[in-house]
Design a protein that fits this description.
This protein is 41% helix and 19% strand. It has helices at 3-14, 30-38, 49-58, 76-79, 92-104, 128-136, 139-142, 161-181, 200-205, 215-218; strands at residues 20-24, 43-46, 64-67, 85-89, 109-115, 146-153, 187-193, 210-213. Strands 7-6-5-4-3-2-1-8 form an eight-stranded parallel sheet. The two termini are 25 Å apart.
Length: 226
Amino acid sequence: MSVTESLNTIRKELEGTSAKLVAVSKTKPNDLIMEANDAGQRVFGENKVQELVEKQVVLPKDIEWHMIGHLQRNKVKYIAPFVHLIHGVDTVKLLKEINKEGKKNDRVIPCLLQIHIAAEETKFGFSINEIEEFLASDLLDELTSISIVGLMGMATNTTDEAQVRSEFSGLKSLFDHLKSTYSRPQLDLKDISMGMSGDYRIAVEERSTMVRIGSTIFGARDYSGK
């Protein structure tokens, strides 16, 4: 199946839902991204800063680039001028760095706070207690060059669909709770980024607003040299 055919299949699945498609183009060559772009896809996700920067330079300027991978503080400066959304903000220190680079570039950078919802210790993210403590603090009011527009979570890598559903449902419940509890100038909760190629259907059922799909669109990834 071609990239265009795969895209159209997923779009039909997502019709009538609240989920926006982020096409995960990491490790994929520019010609495949251009095929997706020609088919009308404008939102792409990358997990490596260097690859994201290289692609942004040469590919169409109407693409919305999302940083979906674990982001190191010393690399924020490279994507701050153009990144449309940073999905995986997992510490207050990283948020402060994004705010600093946002100021330098005279822009407010949209961010999603990553919540640790999986049973795996290798996943990153705030705990529920940490996120509540941060949103209740005065620190957020000082970060005028970021906008927290939602939450992101990665479910456990398991074949147990009930566990995955429970983790996604818990993230949606936390989102609703935070949205109704906290009101701050830099807080505009509207998106939940959850669901990837293996579990996006469950995520959509649990009311994800953003699914990150790569291999189902582009085929298996090539990790050689990456």
